[in-house]
Structures
1.
Amino acid sequence: MIPSGFEYHRPADVAGALSILQEHGDDARVIAGGHSLIPMMKLRMADVDHLIDLQDIDALKGISIGTDEVTIGAMVTQHELIENDALAQAVPIIREAALVIADPQVRYVGTIGGNVANGDPGNDMPGLMQCLDARFELVGPDGTREVPAREFYEAAYFTAREDEEILTKVIIPVPAAGTGQAYEKQKRKIGDYATAASGVMIQTEGGVCTAASIAMTNLADTPIWCEAASDALVGSDLGDVACKAAVAAAIDAIEPVADNRGPVEFKKHVAGVILRRAIDRAIARASN
Amino acid sequence: MSKMHVKLKVNGREVEGLAEPRTLLIHFLRENLKITGPHIGCETSHCGACTVDLNGKSVKSCTVFVAQAQEAEITTVEGLANDDGTLGVIQEMFREHHGLQCGFCTPGMITRAHRLLQENPSPTEEEVRFGMAGNLCRCTGYQNIVKSIMAASDQLNAQKEAAE
Amino acid sequence: MKDEVQTPEDRAAGLKGMGCSRKRVEDVRFTQGKGNYVDDIKLDGMLFGDFVRSPYAHARVKSINSEEAMKVPGVVAVITAADLEPLGLHWMPTLAGDKQMVLADGKVLFQGQEVAFVVAEDRYAAADAVELVEVEYEELPVIVDPFEALKSDVVLREDTVDENGKATDGAHGPRNHPNHIFTWEAGEEAETNAVIDSAEVVAEETMYYHRTHPCPLETCGSVASMDKVTGKLTLWGTFQAPHAIRTVVSLISGIAEHNIRVISPDIGGGFGNKVGAYSGYVCSVVASIVTGRPVKWIEDRMENLMTTAFARDYWMKGKISATKEGKITGLHCHVTADHGGFDACADPTKFPAGFMNICTGSYDIPTAYLAVDGVYTNKAPGGVSYRCSFRVTEAVYFIERMIEVLAIKLNMDAAELRRINFIKKEQFPYQSALGWEYDSGDYHTAWDKAMKAVDYDGLRAEQAQRVEDFKAGKTRSLMGIGLSFFTEIVGAGPVKNCDILGLGMFDSCEIRIHPTGSAIARLGTISQGQGHATTFSQIIASEIGIPADDITLEEGDTDTAPYGLGTYGSRSTPVAGAATAMAARKIRAKAQMIAAYLLEVHDDDVEFDVDRFVVKGAPERFKTMKEIAFAAYNQAIPGIEPGLEAVSYYDPPNMTYPFGAYVCVMDIDVDTGVPDIRRFYALDDCGTRINPMIIEGQVHGGLTEALAVALGQEIAYDEMGNVKTGTLMDFFLPTAWEVPNYETDYTVTPSPHHPIGAKGVGESPHVGGVPCFSNAVQDAFRAFGLTHTNMPHDHWRIWKTANDLGLHD
């Protein structure tokens, strides 16, 4: 497994990266951790003439935690997400999800930006970001714009990002204090993509659900954020009836495909089980 | 494609060479530098036989272009023996507890264990299993690998205590 | 003298001989990355070869155009079947008596088949050129189902029919269809049918043992270097049987055998994958002859999984009969064996289905019959023994499932059913209905020890409670108790009935004692992680009293090692280990004469004592082996040649029959199909134990490979013959996270015919482990009406079992 040759670029800033992208158009690709792109290049399923390595761009690094929002640079690795205690305090579901991604070595180099920008339905961060209602900052020749994660994914490997744009930041609203959060994933082994995975956030007040967000991973060609499932919980006492309704709504929304992990019927069933476990854990973690 | 001038620091020594940017780090180490400790097992970043320590991180060198590693500091299993050529603690504990059989995964295992113990000097067995899950072994069933790393942890901690 | 104050026990301990958990001598190199595997070999001017492979499972190759490929800078040659044909190398013999295309000769029979070999200055240029070789294919109908193959009009192999389209005879007798390879039978068919037809109880089951792959962490590869000046070919490679490879290379290339040197360097695991001969080996040799430069070929992981040596793929149909009390009276087994496009299994010639006829297992079954039909399909060739002796894993899985199925039919406890049918200790040597003579065993003792160790009755009580709780809605988890009792048949084998391509399956050891009392030993085997350099030295240490640390052990170089058939089928200890002991005993016999001369007594008046010969009745008068060695070379002794060395070629009188009792306790999440192995107990009896540490390591590893096979590891094809599991994402190799800690235990029943009583252990845990894990899964559902479900028990198949039983309603 040997990739084809390419010109290698390592720009020092975003502007430099953009100008290379503009110059070469379709022939250029940016690379972050590379653990999705490089295997594709080695299998010669991705043909790249110009590879733009973003590792020297400081503006894409760092985690900043504000009162209302957390901003994560696109080049922040899964390992850095896991190690950041302040982030775990502010948005604990991120550590929980990052820990079930790939394996330790891959987490050292795999970045949040690469994970959300690639559009691979198997990646965990896109669903998680939809659950968190995050926004992605895109910088292109026409300037900077933000796209909500819930509107970013169009189909497998197709996103709202234009070819000449770079995803630079992920901006996450800090969940209200006491929000119960859980990420649940079933996989065949460490290193595998999800058979089914689900991120859930739940807020309660006096035993009543005041807000909920439910997203599913690897159960369609994009992540699925399911408003109907969230709605089934909001206003309820989070009892069995409401939870079952939420699960039913989510199963309705997903469109898994058969693969080596199993047929559609199995995946739908397991998706429901996994989601229910995530809901139950989120409820248990919610306070107020 | 034209070749680039690659400069790295490997096992404490400055090294350089010419290579195409697409050259995978594992090939640069093995072919250009003749550092053949790291092995190629799967080529899709699943097995960990090619694990090296790159700027303080455990990395699968089959999935890194040498261009990306330009100017990096790299440690391979060859750099983990003592200066006098005797086995380092982790290496010795793998031998002591039969943590290897065919030896093919061993360089990656030991290099990964080195980083794991740097970050978590006193791991539980569960933490060792989770922390080593990026390295596959076909021979040992992992039980003695885990045992070796737990023993290395004890010994390294005892050494540290004695030094203090 | 200092060592006079040492007791014999101290002196024995100092030798680090048999029974000692000696640390491995190999590890000093391996832990520092100083192993020398085939891809580590770098020769001046070395080229790299890479294959163009077929994307189709069945197609005619209409044309190959390498013009563009040759333009890639650094490309030296593109070799096709047309280039090999004049040399007679476009086809090669397989170890199963079939022949196989080296490069596509007009058509391809499986996805990934070798079509052209590109040779270039380095692997990057070779890979670029592979992309540019243009091959025109005409797709043909694909057959991936062996039952369909036996009915189809599509003839897969054009060499299996005569000009009238009639099936010709194969290597193992007549074919009943062009896609049929052989029928192989053992036992008495009519008698077995009669017993089963009149039996009180009969249980029947059909089971599929899925296709999988040994997948050692190091893939296959070779480096060929033809020296045109000396006419000598040196071939390094991942060879589990280097001498056999030398003979095969000589036979097919016409190069005289003395001009071929085959070297197996360190091997990164074999597990059966590296027994066979592959196109890459042949092409690297041809390319080196053509270019006059050394040529390296290393396959990548996808190529390894898709093209080299799969294992299993047996459809097994069984009938077992018994009395109402559970005494087994008869066993009938029919197998449809899918061999893929070529029959490239590595079984001894007379056993095209390996030792499948060990399928009566550990039980005293008076009447039995087995028939195996081999079939061609559009899948990769192979059928090798993946960490087992030839087809023994399939055989043991079959009987251990049939026992469970019978227990269900009889409504009986499966442990008890085993106990009442075990061959009794006093029945050994035991003649099985299908033709084997089991050398020794004490099954009841082993079984009772295992049952006690796990508190079997307690486990069953807990399981019954779990079923109650499940039915009451208190839990969604079920508990399975997996049992297996296996008898392996290893150490192939007696030359009278075991050969491969006519090469007798003896093995060998040569020992030379140096004048200062240290030694070098060379064997015909080759370690792939088993630690031969450590353990074989221990045998010599105990036999002749030279410390194991003073013995160098070499294997794998055909120029220096004595001829042997290599390492697979757990044959190293049973055969080469025996040769080692026998060679050592020859040396000891000569040493005795020398000692007697030096002590000025008659030969019979001295006796061996750990590391010396002492005068009987006068232990203060002795000569150490060190002294004897020096004298052997440097003192003129009347009637005795100088020197102290010996070689032994050991033709075993029988196979050895290791056995063991395993128990697995598993919890199963009914809703997700996720199993959780709570406990695994493994009792092994491998006869005399040479190095307990290494035995334990072998058991851990074999069990983990068994876990993988039982719970998910498969080579799966779609109906177009595309491999669906070509990377380690989909081909299941568990990580440290998915693997439990194992409890190991043992009994010792030495082999009566082996010089040191050892039986071999490397493959037992795989053979016994697969049915144990599988039985645990299936046992969890027994209370809900499950009789049998096929492996691999991955999440979705376990879920489906639960779903089919209505447990999700």
2.
Amino acid sequence: MHVYILRRLVLMVPVLFGLTVIVFLIMSLIPGDPALAILGSYATPENVAKLRADLGLDKSLISQYWIWLTHMLHGDFGRSYSLNRPVLDEILERFGATLILAGTSLVLCTILGLLTGVVSAVRQYGWADKTLTFVVLIGISVPSFWLGLMMMLLFAVNLRWLPVSGMYAIYGGGDLPDLLRHLVMPSITLAVVATGVIARLTRSNMLEVLRQDYIRTARAKGLDERRVIYRHAFKAALVNVIPVIGVQAGFVLGGAVYIETVFQWPGIGRMLVTAIATRDILLVQGGVVIVAASYVLFNLFADVLQHLIDPRVKA
Amino acid sequence: MSNPAATAKMAAKPRKSSARPSAFKLLARNHLALLGAVILAGVIIVALITPWLPLTDPDATDPANRLLRPLTDGHFLGTDHLGRDLLSRLLWGTRVSLAVGISASLFAAVFGSAIGIISGYFGGRTDNVLMRGIDMVMAFPYILLALAIVAALGPGLMNALYAIAVVNIPFFARNIRGVTVGIAHREFVDAARLSGKGHIRILLSEILPNVMPVIVITMSTTVGWMILETAGLSFLGLGAQPPQADLGSMLGEGRKLITTALHLSAIPGGMIFLLVMSINLLGDGIRDVLDPRLKSGALARPAPVTRIDRSKTMTNGNVTDANPNINSGRDPILSVEDLRTEFVLGDDVYKAVGGVSFSVGRNECVGLVGESGSGKSVTALSLLGLVASPPGTIVGGRVMLEGRDVFDMRESEIRAIRGGRAAYVFQDPLSTLHPLFSVGDQLVEAIRAHNRVSYKDAWAKAVSLLRMVRIPNPEQRADSYPHQLSGGMRQRVGIAMALANEPELIIADEPTTALDVTVQAQILKLMNNLRTEHGTSVLFITHDFGVVSEICDRVAVMYAGQIVEMGTTQQVLQQPAHPYTKRLIDCVPRLGEAKRDVAAIPGLPPAVNNLPAGCAFAERCDRADDTCRAGAVALDDLGAGHAVRCLKPMGGEDA
């Protein structure tokens, strides 16, 4: 087990390396001169040249990458020009908010998705299955940013049950109940699509597993149907669903961009949108690398979990 | 054959596929998919004719009439904050969103499929490099990569399109590669290569047509997302820039006025929803039609007990069989009378078991012999209602187990018998043991399903069961998982599981077929010993007369769902009366007769959804004439417990 985790950790290194290469290559697609873009078209040639040298733009692409990478490894993600503060400080400040939101959503969509999928499969073609299948279809088709707006209007503006936006109340907030009240709408909205995807996959996997010979064996042993479904079938189906929950972590982390914008959640997603609009490239680079790296880590976690459940997965 | 549905399907193969409706009919039959298609077609048509509709200019501002509510005169959907007509903007915006979504989808499909086909066709290093690259791209959270691309290229509709297309390329590349690998070395591709066609021609004329369905499925499942995600980027202000507007940017503008003018965000958002929903409905329908696994309800969940519907039973037509229990000489523990099991697949009815009667006496071993598809496994599974249903149904007959009809019992009563008084041993223990539980755990479950004992006591019993079936180091082995054991060991576990509650009857469905010859002999010896030691009765299903001769007291030979010959092992082996039995016996190679032809039986058994009127074996029989084909043949008593379903049975001199 420890060997497996260690091996996977080592294998993560080239993936992370590849991530930084891709981010760097995408950023080098930027048309025109970034220094000119930052300083504006009235800048003097001397100032442009100075900024180019400061930003390392006068060096070759490979050495630019190398400088960026080694600085990053030392915790130096550069300085955000629009915020005039170190990129890493800004990211660290906002990363917690995104983790709280995305983590809650992921827990929600895992529980609800598995539950819906199992109920749907067990009641296949019954009214419960038909209803759930339709609800799930709505869930994966609805634009989450629109759903968020409509929920906000209904539950916060009209019914006044929940706070409109933000993470904490401005006056007198800051405790856990306050956070939870602010978390309800964004986390549900963010979880909707992933719930649908997990539910669909769980349903089809349960149906697939229930046709397997070992389920017939379980029945031939005289086990009652509850045990057959919730112990034998569910465990086998879960093994196939876990990697997809890992993938959904990516959709949740990405979808957070919309939801944070809609609900004014002070996370990395909203930071990225602002940074793109102000063309604060270093901030974008840093944010993307950090979020992508946490996604890779989460997938590692999912793999380890799968390994724990399935003895066939090779160590 | 372990899967009865598959058995029935195999039997169906000789028939033409005429019964299968066309893809479009299937799609039309799916009401939700049809609904999706109609909505989508409606939206697309309106989007196409928008320029010719009598609409006001979507960009014409009218500050005097700003923020009008829907259903106002002249502005059906109201106006926005600049007084622009919302209906006109909605239709023009839908045009843009559709065009962008479909273009992104085509872009991703073309590049992704190209990468996938090249990677799958050439394999080796090309494959390796391309797929590592694809993996790398997939290591990013989906939207994040699109954001990074937009960040580099700058906000704008075209850039959003590129970004969304690029992040979708991996889905196509991986799916298409998978399919291409599967066909890259098939005969027709090799043939094309040998005929001197170049790589490009092979890719375009041989590979591409075959992967097209997968490309279509992938497109139908991704185009909805792409519309959603491009709208999302526009919503964030990173896609369409004013005055250009798509549904996403309309929603983004409307958001700022959500409390004062709800219609500005509700309507464009609702339109995105409607569009994506209709695409997903249609996409699911297309996938169901093109994915062969989903055809004919093969994915239906089997019920815990086979469906029993004896209402439509008719007796054996116009023939009366001889008394099936002829001279078992013993008090029967199991007695099967006129058992009929059918599979309904689409419009076809497969009569897998068509009126089977036999009995098993106490401490007796009865063999049920026949080719794959003869109905012997389905017969065995029917006894305790283990035939997968749907599609299987028991439509007639009785199974008397110690004087009670199993088919009249409640589910809980049947469950008490399963693994209790009657237990199964299945063919392939790798697929019939649960891969994720240790064998000890699975044995404990079997014990505890019928006895109120603690886990610890049950574990001790499990270990002793493993010892009983001669598994070395049973204490350690109990902790192993099925995949860690050899085939023979696994079958011993299967037998141990059957023995867990000291059953009176063991139903063994080809328990030695998946094993090699020496292991087979060991397992047979083990079963024989257990039978003599515990006095258990055995119903032994096999296709191998060699196995029959070693273990069975009596034999029933099955063909096309019926018993065609029955008798003591000695009678049947030494004086087979049915030509089919004779052929089956001749299939067994004999030691010391190396030169003898092992005669395969020419031809195939008839499809059980299309049985002939007369003898089912007539087409493959060299003794058959017109009387054989005229009508149903009865099981005829030859005396001394020997019976045969043949009009021209072979005498002793022929055998």
3.
Amino acid sequence: MTMGWAWLILLLATYPWLLGADLASDALASSSLVFFVSGACLIAPSRRLKRWQMILFAGCLGFLFEARRPIPDGALALSLVAAAIFLSTQRQHLRNTPGMLRAAALVNVGACLIWFFAAAYVAPVPMGDIVAQLMRQLLLAGVVGTVCLLPIALTQNAAMDRLGVPPAAEKP
Amino acid sequence: MEANRQGARASYVALAIFVAIWILLPSAVRRFTREAFVEFQAPALHLVGKSRDLATFWEKKSRSVEEMAAAGRDLARVNAALELKLSAYEDVRRENVRLREIARYNVPPEYLSVIARVATRDSSSWWQRIVIRKGRNDGIRPGAPVVFGNIVVGRVTTVHLTTSEVDLVTSPGFRCTAYLEGDEQNRIVLVHGVASNSLGTAKARVSVIPRDYSMPAGQPARVLTTGMGGVFPSRLTLGNLDGMTYATQVGNFSESLLVPSRDLYNLQEVSVLVPLLQNPGEALMQGDQFQ
């Protein structure tokens, strides 16, 4: 397998987690909360993949979330691409587990904030207590990003090891 | 390090150019991208739904023979009662046909009922939807009403090849006209979904309630479809009024909340009523594929 397709194989390896998140959202449906993990899925690959591969990976990750949801096309996908470019310049902060956990929480919360406002932008009716609901959603995204990072990263690292992607450089 | 930063800067510039191109692209390209990602996920959704069905099957198969016999006996009793009701409805249908012939009334377009299993539910403040395992291949069209028995579940908003998305009655995008039970003048009220918050049950809002409307005593007032606009058949139940009505700011009308008659998040199966003839509402929906 050539390195060029590593991002696509990694996306397929990550997809079960996205599906799991959709199922968890299904279980949370009565509480109007979405189990959001797309941001956390970016962290482990951004340590090892090349920048262009990360861009494609992040874009597809965003489009997978957007596909069945009424959000302006590309709003989340392009934001995740921007986040991926930013993460590729901050690899020195992703060398240890606490740094990765912090990054997962931040990126997941940031991406969640973007989809929430993107959805609000096209929503047909205004919402009264938006702040309380937004806070609950962001809190969930932060917790989910932190808790799910390790198992997701484990899966992604195993996939990248199998694909022969070089390990994260000590001095990026 | 410097090369890395320069590379990142170049990537940001490329992204900005791509965003500009993306905005200017024809909507068909964006729709194609969305469709491609939906179809990529469709097999997984089908697999999840079928796995659930399989789990239910084995759970039922593990029941004892005595339990099944008791359930069969109960079902036979219910069937007997329903058969009596059916024969009564047959009389009503015959009378209806006879009256229509006398009045030369135009028969409304009939519906083709397509039974669909629910694959997943998805809900946030801004949308409340279910994904069903039937799509364009099964004849589902955007705008078709979705019901469970005589209860309105919602309306099909987007149709893909093998799956469809249904906006629930409580979803902010849902709009419908209705009659209130107990209003002898049959004045029309409006029902629309409201953006929900996670601590409360999802509800819709009923507006333009006449000030002099009084709810039937001792029971919640049902909210029924009018059949106008040709989307929903008439006299289907949308839900019940949530007790209190309160005056609007202008004071000419009242408003209330609508509680769905059934927990919409626990449905396993729904019926999609596909009109045999395309109605005006459906034609409008076809130009609104974004939602």
4.
Amino acid sequence: MFKATVIIRRRPSILDPQGVAVEKGAVLLGLTNVKETRIGKYIEFTVDADDKSTAEKEVNEYCSKLLANPIMEDYEFNLEKV
Amino acid sequence: MKPNFGVVVFPGSNCDHDAYYTVKKIFGLDVNFLWHKDDDLQKSDVIILPGGFSYGDYLRTGSIARFSPIMKSVIDFANNGGVVIGICNGFQILLEAGLLPGVMLKNKSLQFVCKDVYLSVANRNTLFTTDVPADKVLKIPIAHGEGNYFADDETLNELSENKQIVFKYSSADGEVNENDNPNGSLLNIAGIVNKNGNVLGMMPHPERCCNPVLGKTDGAYIFNSIIHNFLVEV
């Protein structure tokens, strides 16, 4: 069994209006040094596989076909044996 | 021949009955609801993917609906030349399913926008627009939070070259400009077709403006175009 943690980021070339809006809040807080706020997703789940390469294959498929949309997002993940 | 319509019902669809009503009562044609867990298109000639919030819009709009059993049949149907129209959330599902290129981002304003907009018809030679009179600017309502169309430059060039851009947000005079872009869509894109021209995705809701009682009927140009193209085919 493996525990997977996935981070999904919007591609750098794509505007993140949510990040821009949240950063306006930072300005209101007086945090003038905060720049380039971008909001992504953190997803965790377990994979019931015997070896790491099988688990990796499933995580890649899950990420590329469903969790992330490769047109606008990149993903990276970490697998830990549990 | 008269086309039969099918309206797909996903958990969270909320414009399915509007579409059904419009086809059945305004245009007097046969229409069936197609449940997302079924795979039978019930001999439909035209499939409507309606608006709403399929699967709660979780993850990304349309991202989960595309894996429904009915979508496998819809994708096969579309790839074999079947006529499919995705409205609002239906457009988002078509993008996620890969039947149309690009993605939808959150509206630039981050606000849900619900209002009438004007559409310049960029291509009148699709089976969805042949009935729109020359120079007619359509007035059709939008209601969405994620209608900000995005695609890379290569895809945008391809869409323009192949005349796949069908509707663009415009002024009442049909002038396409940034002021009349309600959501930040690239090139003011409101609706596109696939390369073969049999799959249309559009954010505005034509099914909401076909009944004269409601005071707006420009959506009827789109339904009439589809229906007339089937009648002519015989």
